[in-house]
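ARCHIVE CARD
Drawer: 12
Card no.: 0347
Subject: one protein chain, sequence and derived structure
Cross-reference: see card 0346
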Amino acid sequence: MAWYTEGAKTNPANGEVLADSGPLTEGAVTLNSVPVPVVIISSTVNAMVVLQLRNPANDSTVASQGFAVGAHSPFVMPSFGSISLQSGQRLRLVLVGGVTGAMQGSLFL
């Protein structure tokens, strides 16, 4: 299982990437059966974070799911199955709206 995070962020801005898997290829994962990632987000303030599936060029979001994260209440989403990806697609956690506080997001694949 690989761990992806951009580390702890202080006062992150709108659109700040909290975690990015990088391009996923057949060598790194089995593309027709990629586990839905375990998502962990911690924050000192209330925030909204989006899990994005990005296209291989990383210039468009193919699908997304938002998560509300409470202050001092870590958000944990366990893996619950698998998805199929095209070679080069990636998964990212992105902050929606800037915050004054500290945050960290992680993806485990």
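Annotation on reverse: The first strand starts at residue 3 and ends at 5. The chain is about 0% helix and 50% strand.
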